[in-house]
Amino acid sequence: MLRDARALLREGSGCDRERSENVEQDSSRAITDSLRAKVFEAIERTEHLVAQVPLDRLNWAPEFSGAGAAPRDFGHLMGHLLDCLAGFCAVFAAGFPAELAELQELRSYPVNQFCSPEEARKGLRMFAGHIDRGFQCCTDGDLARRIATVFVPEGETVLTLLLGNFEHLTNHKYQLFLQLKFSGALVGTKDLYHLRGPAGELRSE
User: Fold this and answer.
1) What is the per-residue pLDDT for 195?
2) CA dist., res. 131 & res. 123, Å (int)
3) Among 93, 101, 113, 125, which is least packed by CB within 10 angstroms?
4) Is the pLDDT of residue 201 over 70?
5) Could you report the per-residue pLDDT of 66-99, keeping only the tens digit for each?
6) Using CA atoms, how far apart are residues 127 and 104, in angstroms rounded to an integer?
7) Dist. CA 159–CA 183, nearest whole Å
8) Separation CA 87–CA 85 (nearest Å)
9) DSSP string covering the chain
């Protein structure tokens, strides 16, 4: 059964639950766990925004005079959000080819295609599960390892690649938020971000 991003966000990584309370061991994952938390906050809010897309406006896109390429309609934008999550899986597949060999199978999963909110949420949850597994395999030391890419043959660090994919996701999450606003949907700050209270607890709805 696919768990939604909210459940994964609340649970923390599997490594958190399984490892002993060793300060030195925990410190080797401090950055990784913080990054994981931010990624899953973004995924959870993305899934939340997808749920706000009206079913009768999937083909709608805003019109801007003098703009270059036409904006994606809702259906194709949601399909591109799946591509954003696939990027994280590509990094983990390259960084942990033996441990995460199953991620290679995701290459055939359809992304960047028109989809409904239900199809998008199913895909988001599927990718989120694999991303969670990737973070379980990763430590702070792994973040400094270099992986060769098509654009940078000499390699970029795992951290740089994950942050690049995080930026990609947050940019298109904000695009979906703005498109919902332009379409007349009643969305606000709490739909876009996790708001924190005085003790740091999450307050998004």
Assistant:
1) 81
2) 12
3) 101
4) no
5) 666 778 999 999 999 999 999 999 999 999 999 9
6) 12
7) 36
8) 5
9) -PPPHHHHHHH--HHHHHS---HHHHHTTHHHHHHHHHHHHHHHHHHHHHTTS-GGGTT-----TT-SSPPPPHHHHHHHHHHHHHHHHHHHHHH-TTTTGGGGGGGGS--SS---HHHHHHHHHHHHHHHHHHHHH--HHHHT-EE--SS-TT-EEHHHHHHHHHHHHHHHHHHHHHHHHHTT----HHHHS--B-TTS-B---
CB atoms within 10 A of CB 35: 19
What the block records as the tokens of 5 is 């991003």
Query: Domains (ranges, CATH) in the chain?
Result: 5-59+73-192 (1.20.120)
Neighbours of 90 (CB within 10 A): 17
Question: What is d(CA 8, CA 12) in angstroms, rounded to the nearest whole number?
Answer: 6
Round to whole Å and give the CA distance between 19 and 141.
17
Residue 165 has pLDDT above 90, yes or no: yes
Cβ atoms 120, 161 nearer than 8 A = no
User: What pLDDT was estimated at residue 11?
Assistant: 63
